[in-house]
Amino acid sequence: IGDELDGNVELQRMIDDSSLIPSKDVFLRVAVEIFSDGKFNWGRVVALFYFACRLVLKALITKIPDIIRTIITWTTDYLRDHVIAWIRDQGGWDGIRAYFGTPTWQTVGVF
Fold first, then answer.
1. Model-level pTM?
2. How far is the C-alpha of 90 from the C-alpha of 47, rounded, in Å?
3. Contact 18, 55 (CB under 8 A)
């Protein structure tokens, strides 16, 4: 999944186009786009985490670590408000393990 997300030109453009300091508006635009058709799946949940992680890395690289806690808050708020019911319906976070199988060192490296 990580390679697929790295190769997603549109997602990479949204990450690169975000301002030097990531904004909640940019985060929400991308989050809404990920789930724009109203369909949920584990790949999209992973994509949301991937995007949040990329913003955190961008904050570290540009030496603005103060925003990291804020990015985590945006992510957890969005999950709670829009995605958690679907996750619960899939058996909670254990559902991701059932979907992707038993983690190996390769899959752990993706996350």
1. 0.76
2. 17
3. yes
CATH number (domain holding residue 57): 1.10.437.10
Does the structure show a pLDDT above 70 at 14? no
Q: Are 34 and 44 in contact (CB under 8 A)?
A: yes
Tokens 């913003």 belong to which residue? 55
**Count of domains forming the chain:** 1
Task: Assess contact for 95 and 30: CB atoms under 8 A.
Answer: no
**Average pLDDT, rounded, for the chain:** 82
Q: How far is CA 51 from CA 12, 34, 77, 98, 104, in A?
A: 9, 10, 15, 23, 22
Task: Quote the domain boundaries for residue 96.
Answer: 2-110
Q: What is the C-alpha to C-alpha distance for residues 73 and 75, in angstroms, rounded to an integer? A: 5
Structure token pair of residue 17:
């186009």
What is the rounded CA–CA span in Å between residue 26 and residue 28?
6
pLDDT 10s digits, 25-74: 889 988 999 999 999 999 999 989 988 998 898 888 888 888 999 999 99
